[in-house]
Specification:
It contains three helices and five strands; from the N terminus they run βββββααα. By secondary structure, the chain is of the alpha+beta class. The chain has one domain. A hairpin with a 4-residue loop joins strand 2 and strand 3. The radius of gyration is 14 Å and the shape is globular.
């Protein structure tokens, strides 16, 4: 997981409620990265905000909304590569393996 800071919270789609929208200046944790279509741009899933069915068709925040520390750029490139090779989100993995979020959190922190 990689930390980032929101630098652009403008133009919130009407389908996404305020409480599920990023805030400029706030720090977030990237838990999944993917190339979104049809835009062909990088999108992030964030640990702090879940874009669920109520936000359809939006599932990811575009990477251009965030800034990263210089030292995290290489880690992000490797992370994006790993995510696209696996092609499954953390939430999907939890659902597929019948692991609860609480159990998954415990596993991740051990």
């Amino acid at each position: 997981m990689i930390n980032c800071i929101c630098i652009n919270d403008k133009n919130k789609p009407k389908e996404i409620p305020e409480h599920k929208w990023v805030k400029e200046g706030e720090e977030y944790t990237i838990i999944f990265a993917i190339v979104v279509l049809p835009q062909r741009r990088i999108g992030f899933q964030l640990e702090e905000i879940t874009l669920d069915e109520s936000c359809h068709p939006y599932e990811y925040f575009l990477a251009e909304r965030f800034a990263l520390r210089q030292e995290d750029i290489e880690r992000l490139i490797q992370f994006i590569y790993e995510c696209t090779q696996i092609n499954i989100s953390v939430k999907e993995l939890i659902k597929e393996t019948n692991v609860t979020e609480r159990t998954a959190y415990t596993i991740e922190t051990d």
